[in-house]
Amino acid sequence: MQIRTPYLIFLGDAHDQLAAKTGVAIAEWRRELCVGQLRLPGCQADAGLPDLTLEEAAAAGAKTFLIGTTTRGGRINEAWQQLMLRALELGLDIASGLHDRVADLPAVREAASLFHRAIHDVRTPHGPFPVGTGLRRPGKRVLTVGTDCSIGKMYTALALEREMKAAGMAATFRATGQTGILIAGSGIPLDAVVADFIAGAVETLCPANDPDHWDVIEGQATVLHPSYAGVTVGLVMGAQPDAMVMVHDPTRPTMRGLGDRPVPGIAETIEAHEACARVTNPRAKVVGISLNTSRLDEAAAMAEIARTADRFGLPTIDPARTGCGPIVSVLKGM
Amino acid sequence: MQIRTPYLIFLGDAHDQLAAKTGVAIAEWRRELCVGQLRLPGCQADAGLPDLTLEEAAAAGAKTFLIGTTTRGGRINEAWQQLMLRALELGLDIASGLHDRVADLPAVREAASLFHRAIHDVRTPHGPFPVGTGLRRPGKRVLTVGTDCSIGKMYTALALEREMKAAGMAATFRATGQTGILIAGSGIPLDAVVADFIAGAVETLCPANDPDHWDVIEGQATVLHPSYAGVTVGLVMGAQPDAMVMVHDPTRPTMRGLGDRPVPGIAETIEAHEACARVTNPRAKVVGISLNTSRLDEAAAMAEIARTADRFGLPTIDPARTGCGPIVSVLKGM
Q1: Domain ranges within chain A, ordered by starting residue
Q2: Considering only CB atoms, which chain A residues are within 8 Å of B233?
Q3: pLDDT band at B99 (very low <50, low <70, confident <90, very high)
């Protein structure tokens, strides 16, 4: 499954930037794949792309109408249906990361069939996947891991890929969540894979490659997460990472959605991920720390980054402030 | 989902005892729930039950026609279809742990609908399940864990339940695999649950209970398994076990289906499971070792049991040889 590019990014009537975060992220990380954005009256979000009608986008070569909003509960707004039908008629595919499946709308599904167009509901895995083998395969892999969910693992992986490429390295971002999949144009929504096949799906996602090629794999959750650790463990073991980058938010006291459960410490989380990863790659190690300091001012952030580097003896970055240089240097030497 | 009892155990034309191991196990662990067995010409297996026709079983009160064979690849023999149709007509439900779903046979599905009978394909989970919360809940739980797959975790859990009940304790076997589910009459086939919901499914399986009630939970795989660790980790964290029993086969050098990968050691496996379990139950610990000595003679087995107890300082049993006494005593004191 590869989503055709370039995209027309649909921002709907998103009431703020956060409600269109998928579309905004695609424009940020894959600007070259976006011909424009389509916004409905009242839309308060802006991905910084030219505003185009469906017809203008089709004329500009758009191949996929990409739903870039995150509606509440992931529901598809039925009022968007007419737009989707027209997009299909104009020769565009449709891609969506929403919870509700576009392909479950009968009129849209029928129109896609009539016009021989594809619908990509990227929360639905394209199995079947094999059982993981645990066998070592060529190519290098770096996996972002973290102390909690929604903390910056996708952002860190994308920033690493960009800077690794800029440094002349062969690097490919590998997506494991819906936003990452829409950015990459392919990937596997790991949280929706059947339990027995998690590691096998990841082995499929980042298969054997050239010895000097790096897969930069988007992490999920944490192996210390009481709800989602099964996903993370399967991901870590399937990835067989040579290197891991630990993502942490120093301003977050408690885990998301888990009441007053404290976020585990960096040292404990490093130890847990290294123990897990070494089941399939005995040389796996955490090679750097990526701090999400978005809630700190510049001075406090830089002080926290320096303090963390010092405390753990590991290169420490905030990709949004400092770039990934020190970690890319380590990877380049591996 | 609760499968109606008593059962008629169908052994098909199983060419040996192993090919009918599901039926044999049900007769071993739940003899009181079985009215008889049905064998086709050429069947070489015997669950030790009276041989009955469908009509005799129905007259004897059988409520479910239970497919007790493990055909190659889990395929349903189409020739069995006439038997299933007649069983439904006689008022029996159908239960199966095979890979192919009975409910996917159109004629059988239609007959079940016509006669208002249930089809239990126990490899198919009855979701949706919630996301795990990690919140502590009342009741005590013991989970069997192990150094590999197919090593005796279900057997140990069933033996523990039986002896705990005999010792006057309130204990309930909780099944996580298809054979266990058919024995218990309910449970969740954990390997088929969607990744995000593994821990939540287990929280559903062994919910809050009386403070002195023990759930005796069937383990799966091992947290050190390169293919299936995601399942195990979700199970361990969802179970929040107060106690774990480590199951090991001292005669197995390499892990099943993984080439020459050695079986991890007992000490390493205990450490990994305790670290995982303490994410949701800080007091979790391995309280005993259950050895599968089926490939040793009696003297070698008893020596190995004594040596293991001495080496790890933990009560060590083989439930098939020694019973579970020393471990039941520990649990009784908790």
Answers
A1: 7-121, 140-332
A2: 223, 229-230, 233
A3: confident
The position carrying tokens 């064979």 is: B69
- Specify the DSSP class assigned to residue B51: B
> What DSSP assignment string belongs to A94-123?
EEE-SSS-GGGSHHHHHHHHHTT--EEETT
CA–CA gap between residue B91 and residue B65 (Å, rounded): 10
Q: Which of these, B127, B130, B138, lies nearest to B200 by C-alpha position?
A: B130
Q: Please name the residues in contact with A8: beta carbons below 8 A apart, sequence gap of 6 or more.
A: A34, A35, A36, A37, A38, A52, A54, A57, A62, A64, A65, A66, A87, A92
Query: Are the C-beta atoms of B291 and B176 separated by less than 8 Å?
Result: no
> Would you call B196 and A195 a contact, using CB atoms and an 8 Å cutoff?
no
CB-based contact, B223 to chain A, within 8 Å: yes
Instruction: Tell me: pLDDT of B299 over 70.
Output: yes
**What would the DSSP string read from start to end of B223-240?**
TT-TTTHHHHHHHHHHH-
Amino acid identity at A119: I
Sheet holding A7-12, edge to edge: A34-39, A7-12, A64-67, A93-96, A119-121
pLDDT per residue as tens digits for the range A109-158: 999 999 999 999 999 999 899 999 999 999 999 999 999 999 999 999 99
Residues 6+ apart with CB under 8 A from A311: none
How crowded is the C-beta side of A143, counted as CA atoms within 13 Å?
Answer: 31
How many residues can be counted in chain B?
A: 334
**Interface contact A224, partner B, CB < 8 A:** yes
Q: Specify the CATH number for B7-121; select among 3.30.1310.20, 3.10.580.10, 3.30.70.20, 3.40.50.720.
A: 3.40.50.720
pLDDT in the model for residue B127: 86
Is A230 at the interface with chain B, CB within 8 A? yes
CB contact under 8 A, A133 and B228: no
Give the pLDDT of residue B200: 98
List, for residues B228-283, the tens digit of each pLDDT value.
Answer: 999 999 999 999 999 999 999 999 999 999 999 999 999 999 999 999 999 999 99
Cβ–Cβ below 8 Å for A230 and B233: yes
Taking each helix axis from N to C terminus, what angle separates B298-312 and B266-277, rounded to the nearest 10 degrees?
50
Domain boundaries A140-332, CATH class: alpha beta
Q: Is A105 on the interface with B (CB under 8 A)?
A: no
Q: Would you say the CATH fold of A140-332 matches that of A7-121?
A: yes
In a mutational test of the B interface, the residue from A220, A228, A268, A269 whose CB has the highest number of chain B CBs within 10 Å is A228
What value of ipTM does the predicted structure carry? 0.93
